[in-house]
Amino acid sequence: MLKLPSTIKTLESESEFRLKEKGSxxxxxxxxxxxxAEANTFLNSIRKKYYDATHHCxxxxxxxxxxxxxxxxxxxxxxxxxxxxxxxxxxxxxLVTVVVRYFGGTKxxxxxxxxxxxxxxxxxxxxxxxxxxxxxxHTEISYRFDQSKTVHHIISKYSALIRNSLYEPxxxxxxxxxxxxxxxxxxxxxxxxxxxIHIDLKESFExxxx
Length: 210
Prior knowledge:
The protein has 2 domains: about 120 residues, Impact, N-terminal domain (Ribosomal Protein S5, domain 2), CATH 3.30.230.30; about 80 residues, Alpha-Beta Plaits (2-Layer Sandwich).
């Protein structure tokens, strides 16, 4: 299993920043995303919205280590990697940043061009709302009706978040356990099973705002 960090930093919501440099406009737009498909959907929507722009350069990165960036026709190393570096400056993950450029007629040169892409990205992220999220593991707890009080005590003890309560054909609670408490609750599984309470730690995880 991929080892995921117990906490991450990401964006709370979409943000943007506009920079003008020697006639060119650099519009940087960032958005929190969970999957590559979501990032690509956002990229396509930006391309469609700003269809008349000269370039749509971007970078996205995820907590599993996956990342991708593109210069979209700009000189190699002037755009995508600069956007990616701006994201890393704030130690952010699970996000996509697109910088839309409208060429103003004056060539900037490789150095100033790279600086413009970096500046547009870093100012955008600097002004955005950055949040911390905590890792939780999906868990199911099956039990008898007369054990409801004990089960809710366990949920409270381990600061678990209830997602769903089912009562047919037998009671079951779907919840999220903070990753920091998983080892402790796992240590209680066998003794609880002897009382009829079954704890099933799923191989699925989710990050939730602290």
